[in-house]
Design brief:
single chain, mainly alpha, 0% strand, elongated
Length: 66
């Protein structure tokens, strides 16, 4: 019996998109709010983007490295 190995070529790309994608979206929303003179809300979105990025690099980085 021959086992067929799955094709996992795009797995690293998907993990990187999961790591970086939402933080980029949050930063873009923060930039739009900053441009529209809503500086306090923009600051909250920038902080959320950085926190998401730090946590995602910590969790997904461990998954990728092992």
């Amino acid at each position: 019996m021959m086992f067929i190995e799955p094709n996992l070529d795009g797995l690293l790309t998907v993990l990187i998109l999961i790591m970086v994608g939402p933080s980029i979206v949050l930063a873009i929303i923060g930039g739009i709010l900053y441009y529209n003179q809503k500086k306090k809300a923009a600051k909250v979105f920038f902080i959320l983007a950085v926190i998401y990025l730090v946590i995602s690099f910590g969790i997904c980085g461990v998954l990728i490295s092992s």
